Amino acid sequence: MIKKEMIAMLLAGGQGSRLGVLTSKVAKPAVAFGGKYRIIDFPLSNCINSGVDTVGVLTQYRPLRLNTHIGIGIPWDLDRNIGGVTVLPPYEKSSNSEWYTGTANAIYQNMEYMEGFHPEYVLILSGDHIYKMDYEVMLDFHKANGAEVTIAVMPVPMEEASRFGIMIADENRRITEFEEKPEHPRSNLASMGIYIFNWKTLKNALMAMADQPALDFGKHVIPYCHKQGSPLYAYEFTGYWKDVGTLNSYWEANMELIDIVPEFNLYEEYWKIYTGSEIQPPQYLSENSVVERSIIGEGTNVFGEVYNSVIGCGVTVGKGTVIRDSIVMNRTQIGDGCQLNKAIIAEDAEIGSHVRLGMGDEAENDTAPHIYNHGIVTIGEKSVIPDGITVGKNTVIFGVTTAADYTDASLASGKTLIKAGE
Amino acid sequence: MVRAIGIILAGGNNHRMKELSQKRAICAMPIAGSYRSIDFTLSNMSNSHIQKVAVFTQYNARSLNEHLSSSKWWDFGRKQGGLFVFTPAVTAENANWYRGTADAIYQNLSFLKSSHEPYVVIASGDGVYKMDFNKVLEYHIEKKADITVVCRDMDSDTNIERFGTIRMNEESRIEELEEKPLLAKSRTVSCGIYVLRRRQLIEMIEKCAEEDRYDFVRDILIRYKDVKRIYGYKMKDYWRNIASVEDYYGTNMDFLKPEVRDYFFKQYPDIYSKVDDLPPAKYNVGSQVRNSLMASGCIVNGVVENSVIFKKCYIGNNCVIRNSIILNDVYIGDNTRIENCIVESRDTIRANSTYTEEPGRIRIVVERNDRYVI
Prior knowledge:
By secondary structure, chain A is of the alpha/beta class.
């Protein structure tokens, strides 16, 4: 009989629309991070490092890049005879076919997958956080307390607590109450969206709540379990944990990697983060290059200057080009004599020569100020910017642009230029 | 090319590598920052669609075995074929080490006999090159050759006294083949890559063993050259054998040339290596890197010029590294100066040390100090 003590279900179906054009072609968990990684590498690596070798990855929005990246799980050692990684997209049924309508609904629709492993516990993860966590320690906590549901929580500053789902726990960490984004929070323990359920508890709750539209863990399943009297415990996590849900938090989390001793250290011998690496050669820094306070991925060629930046694999930085405070993802080519300031450039983009990004004064973005802010220039994947273009702050460019798309060879601060034909 | 199986002769060691080969077989030597020597031949075989490859190894194979612990990096982990590593073993008939290249093949003759592919590609594991073996095989068939030897013209400043030299007639049939002659009569050297029919090889190897002969070049190629049709296939692209300190250093430094990097790193097909899951290289304040290759996992705080830095090295504050090769996982303490050196892997260099050699000469640095890291 096949049996796994704990299996993981990783929710990777969301778009993450606050990352703007970065997620217009890929799901958020597939967005590049830290030079050579993708966001989903962190929970996947945590799983294998914690001894969880059975992971169902639930996909829905734009799954191609995610599917290609995960493959059969070789980089994470999740290519197993029994278990391993399985990509679980929504599927057609003889009746009631539907998309995944909520986090818990997605899990509900994959009941059969979970049942096949006869698990004792199910770990629910989301694919959009940067952190290192030993789920086995959390499971020990869960067992020691005789919990039926354990929710990982993180102390946050009181003034920010109203942005999160807040848990109120007694001195034994047993959860007595919880509030979703409360106006006047009574605790600062924010839910991290990581849960361990006893399989029986989870199954009963999902079956009982099956008809709830947009079935969600935070809104429906956890309150249901609480109402049924299941013991709920809060597992406090104090390590580095970053939600990279907005462009600014994404930019910040990348920049934190270049500190002398980063709070989130990728260079530790144990707890490695794994990723699929299709580019293997070393990087080359030319005679006149300058690189300071930056991290750079494999196979990148630098002929210019790079400061305070995170550069991916297979990138070319042309002669005389100066990059500051920017993120450049895999295989993007940047011409000669460019100036890049606080730009996020997605994969496979082509930036011509003498292009200047992030120039001038700030102005509010004209289409989506809640997404494009903090002065960041965002360039979508496979975009092309011709030679000699000057681009302002809080701007976004996506698609193959030509000189004709710009007035006076420039795009003013706050402007949006999206040319992407599907 | 499911028409051929591959054999990689990876056993060798020689004094020309000095201290560098104390730790490992030559074909496990790190190359160009991210690779090991044998990756080139393995990738060439994989890219030529050879599915079944045997690696014969004998001398200090720990490092090599570790590198070959999984065959998936070169895509050999298939149901048909696969990657086989043969070290000498005591059997009912035999208790010897491999006494030569032909003996290594003889001791594993069952591998050849149980295969069904009509041809064999034999290659050494210490060459840095790209090659489509299908082209050699087509040539071999077209010439109706018994054995085809891949060879290359070397320019006049290359020291060729450690190679086998070849003279061919206008039809490319080999007329003269000398092993490491003191006075070379030709600038054409053998690259140590051979193509022949599997049955032909079995027959020759068995004959060889009967006569207590053990060396493939001396006892097969040279001995049979007038009896069998042995042809030379001239390759014109980059090829370099790394089996001396000078050539090892030179090969690595070649990768600082844009055309060499473009040929190996950008052009199809790729060279594959074992994936080490290291983070991106990190450059802190004070780092100044010029005309150098840097592999993943390195942390740089000092000056690096005209050098090749392999994986996971740490270079301290105020260090100056010039014209040097720093092998994997070396820790270099602050204020250290290294010029014209090859620093052995996993070395720990104390702070405030100096290792220099005059230009044109190469110093090998082997240091075993304790390492205290955060």
